[in-house]
Write a structure and sequence with these properties.
Layout lengths: L5 H11 L3 H9 L4 H22 L7 H12 L9 E2 L2 E2 L4 H13 L6 H26 L4 H9 L2 H10 L3 H16 L3 H14 L7 H38 L1 H8 L19 H4 L2 H70 L5 H17 L29 H16 L16 H5 L6 H16 L5 H32 L1
Antiparallel strand pairs: 1-2
Helix pairs in contact: 3-6, 4-5, 5-10, 6-9, 9-10, 10-11, 11-12, 11-14, 11-16, 14-16, 16-19, 18-19
Length: 495
């Protein structure tokens, strides 16, 4: 009597969704990304189906993948003997098992359409995992993700028109990141290692992940997680290791492999001789190490803050939950008592209008007299039925984990000996996060995103696009470094 019914509360929530402030929040407020993310996934489903049905498929590596797996399925366990039209098999055992499974699902690799729809599923699943991270971190406005994701021609091409193994490796990586965010260490390590078993580029995250383990789990816990990662590789590679271990290790984890200059996106401006020179490769490795030395201490500080705040969460969250549970129990008791009183009132004869007016005025008088110091009552009757709920949004702590992981991977991409077109999937979904982790203007951030997309969409790459891609990468990394440095300096002064 006097409280809102469930229908009224539901109606209030629905009407609130059509207010200008709520609608605006769906576009610009990172905290309201959930509904926009749902719409984005639906839009991507439609777009990918249209791409598959209307854009011609282009053969690049799929046939070679099927040939390599066909050799394995025919009983060949010597990695040096597993080959396709594009050359020898150069991916770990996880790749072989997954694409052998696809070999059966697609009629020995002949039914390309089925494969494309499977990759639509892979793309949408990864997108959901990516958006979950963005929802938790509350870092990037919804409109940024909508524009960036929907307009990327190259990413849609990589996933559903080329059928590369890179998206599968990246999918496992994002599964792992989501498990790490939820503090599910064992599952995170398992899926991270599964990603490595599909393609080695996932190892670019390893330096950050190692210190994340060390900061949160200590030395013993780190050894356990590394053991899990290692055992996954051993178990998956066991058939090949038992038959010809040298051939497997050299073929699947060949760190000295020389890439074909024909497909390079980032070093078109170099002569082939310089591009294939070992000194050039060692120089890039040295730059990679130097950048890690600069950024890893910053990452460790982020990880330590993450660890401390997670500890606070463990201490505080049970108290919050207990308080909310007690409030819920008390609210339920009040509602039960009110039902009994209403039932008793219904059994009595109806009051006259004068009697109702008298009781209402008497209730108001009692409320006023109950206020200390003669203060007016500001509590509305409708609030009496509303359950008080206490909460602290700890999800935002994920920023302290995600940013270092994305940075370290980005550094690895920057220093790669060559970037082929499918490698764009390695870091595409992290670019909005990195750009919104610096102090550049919104227009400049979008300019960087557009230029990077243009560089990846230019085929074949040119001197200009290769050089421009490096300029964009350096600009992104410098902006992140500058902001992190300022934030850490501010924290040190406060301490």
């Amino acid at each position: 009597m006097g409280g809102k019914t469930k229908f009224q509360e539901f109606y209030h929530e629905i009407t609130k969704m059509f207010t200008w402030s709520y609608m605006k929040g769906l576009i610009v407020n990172p905290a309201q990304l959930t509904l926009t993310a749902l719409a984005l996934v639906v839009a991507e489903l439609i777009i990918n189906i249209l791409v598959v049905e209307r854009v011609p498929y282009t053969e690049i590596d799929w046939k070679a993948y099927m040939q390599e797996c066909e050799g394995f399925l025919n009983g060949t366990l010597d990695y040096s003997q597993l080959r396709g039209d594009t050359g020898p098999l150069v991916y770990p055992a996880g790749f072989v098992y997954i694409y052998s499974f696809l070999y059966f699902l697609t009629g020995q690799g002949e039914n390309i359409k089925v494969a494309q729809y499977i990759f639509i599923g892979i793309y949408l699943l990864q997108l959901c995992l990516v958006l979950r991270i963005y929802i938790k971190t509350k870092k990037v406005p919804p409109y940024v993700l909508v524009i960036t994701i929907l307009t990327s021609y190259r990413i849609h091409s990589i996933y559903v028109l080329r059928l590369f193994n890179d998206p599968i490796a990246v999918l496992f990586l994002y599964v792992a990141l989501n498990f790490f965010v939820d503090s599910k260490w064992y599952l995170g390590s398992i899926f991270y290692s599964l990603g490595v078993s599909v393609k080695m580029n996932i190892l670019l995250y390893a330096p950050a992940l190692f210190f994340f383990y060390l900061t949160n789990l200590g030395f013993k816990g780190t050894i356990i997680q590394l053991f899990i990662c290692g055992m996954i590789q051993v178990v998956l590679g066991l058939p090949f290791l038992l038959h010809s271990p040298i051939a497997y290790l050299k073929g699947s984890f060949d760190l000295g492999r020389v890439f074909n200059h024909t497909w390079t996106v980032n070093y078109r401006f170099l002569d082939v001789e310089i591009f294939e020179n070992k000194c050039f490769h060692l120089t890039l490795l040295a730059i990679h190490v130097i950048l890690l030395i600069i950024f890893i201490p910053m990452c460790i500080k982020y990880f330590k803050s993450y660890c401390r705040l997670k500890y606070v969460q463990k201490q505080v969250q049970p108290q919050i939950d207990a308080k909310n549970l007690e409030n819920k129990r008390q609210s339920r008791q009040k509602k039960e008592m009110k039902k009994k009183l209403n039932k008793n009132n219904d059994e009595q004869e109806n009051l006259t209008k004068d009697q109702e007016d008298f009781l209402n005025s008497f209730e108001v008088m009692l409320q006023k007299s109950s206020q200390k110091g003669g203060k007016k009552s500001v509590k509305k009757p409708v609030d009496q039925d509303k359950d008080p709920h206490y909460s602290i949004n700890f999800d935002i702590l994920s920023q302290l984990f995600i940013l270092p992981m994305f940075i370290v991977n980005f550094i690895g991409v920057m220093c790669s000996r060559s970037l082929h077109y499918q490698f764009y999937s390695w870091y595409f979904h992290s670019l909005p996060y990195l750009l919104w982790s610096n102090n550049y203007s919104v227009i400049f951030r979008f300019l960087i995103l557009a230029l990077i997309e243009m560089c990846w969409n230019t085929y074949p790459s040119t001197y200009l696009t290769s050089a421009l891609l490096h300029v964009c990468h350096i600009t992104v990394l410098y902006g992140v470094y500058k902001k992190i440095s300022a934030e850490l300096n501010m924290v040190s002064k406060l301490q």
